[in-house]
Design goal:
It is a single chain. By secondary structure, the protein is an alpha/beta fold. It is 40% helix and 15% strand. The chain has helices at residues 9-17, 54-66, 76-82, 100-107, 125-138, 142-164, 188-194, 213-219, 233-244, 253-257, 265-269, 276-287, and strands spanning 4-6, 24-27, 44-46, 72-74, 86-90, 116-120, 171-177, 182-183, 198-199, 223-226, 260-263, 301-303. The strands form three sheets. Strands 7, 8, 9, 10, 11 and 12 form a six-stranded mixed beta sheet that branches. Strand 1 (4-6), helix 1 and strand 2 (24-27) form a beta-alpha-beta unit. Helix 5 runs antiparallel to helix 6 (142-164) and helix 6 (142-164) packs parallel to helix 12 (276-287). The longest helix is centred in the middle third of the chain and has 23 residues, at 142-164. The N and C termini lie far apart (47 Å).
């Protein structure tokens, strides 16, 4: 069987969902699902302190990039010792995970000789299906790939059809970063629409855009979902003081109505993988509490 090195969490989840978890020989520092992958050697680490407030994280990233330093450190000897036949990486975001270009730069010629490289780039739902297809092909699991995609799409279609029949279509703002403010783009606007909402900021298939507080305040959304990249629920709540201190926060309709929600961005919204149907279900639970059982309340989302 082929030996696989996964350098991004969504690739690890796809590999596991395809039944090839036992073929993984090394993982990134961010690969934490399924939980059993925690026993694998870790070949990357982040070069900034991620425990500081989101504004400081943003500044640290900008400082590194402006100095031509990498956000991530790659353990090249470990990867070579692991001797993978397949390396799974990504080219979607240089900030979120080790990129294909960065990996190629440190591994040099070794990266291209005798190793199959699959670089994931999911900007929207159709790209996720393609990423699953590409990994399934390289690990010789084409049938399992088609079955996995079909299962996910059927689950999402069921939610989509149920939400389409509802009269209520709340106006929604999804926040992917708090300081500075960033709206959620890429596949998130698609999920909001499928969940019966009207997405106010961010476009399908386009990288998440920075946004101005005055823009958000003037839009006066019916619902705000805060899903910071890489943050779990506890960390998300700890960062909410920044939003709550903006002038006019308490005047927003959704704040008055108690329709501000926190979501586990790390597990459910920043990864383009098999759990995307659960991401959709979480949004549907938030937007239509009388129609959907709150299966993920307390684990995937909570009210602010």
């Amino acid at each position: 069987m082929a030996r696989i090195a996964s350098l991004t969490p969504n690739a690890t989840e796809i590999t596991a969902a395809l039944g090839a978890l036992s073929q993984l020989v090394v993982r990134s520092h961010a690969c934490d699902y399924p939980r059993s992958v925690s026993s694998l050697p870790v070949c990357t680490k982040v070069n900034i302190d991620t425990t500081v407030p989101s504004s400081d994280i943003d500044q640290s990233i900008k400082d590194l990039l402006s100095s031509a330093f990498s956000i991530y450190e790659i353990d090249v000897p470990l990867i070579k010792t692991a001797a993978p036949d397949i390396i799974l990486t990504q080219s979607q975001c240089d900030v979120c995970a080790v990129s294909e270009a960065e990996l190629s730069g440190v591994l040099g010629d070794w990266f291209h000789h005798g190793v199959d490289v699959v670089s994931l780039k999911s900007n929207q739902l159709t790209d996720i299906w393609q990423d699953i297809t590409n990994i399934a092909e390289v690990i010789d699991a084409n049938d399992r790939g088609r079955e996995l995609i079909s299962k996910i799409r059927v689950n999402m279609s069921t939610i989509d059809k149920k939400c389409a029949a509802l009269q209520s279509r709340p106006r929604v703002v999804c926040i992917e970063w708090i300081a500075p403010l960033m709206a959620a783009g890429n596949w998130i606007p698609e999920l909001v629409s499928m969940a019966g909402g009207i997405n106010l900021f961010g476009e399908i298939g386009i990288h998440s855009p920075w946004m101005d507080w005055e823009e958000l305040k003037n839009s006066d959304p019916d619902v705000i979902i805060v899903m910071p990249c890489g943050f779990d629920l506890k960390r998300c709540r700890a960062e909410m003081f920044t939003l709550a201190n903006f002038p006019g926060w308490d005047e927003l309709s959704c704040v008055k109505a108690g329709d501000v929600y926190l979501a586990d961005g790390n597990q459910y919204f920043n990864r383009s993988g098999p759990r995307i149907s659960q991401s959709l279900e979480i949004i549907a639970e938030i937007l239509h509490p009388h129609e959907f059982e709150p299966k993920y309340k307390g684990s995937g989302w909570e009210r602010y």
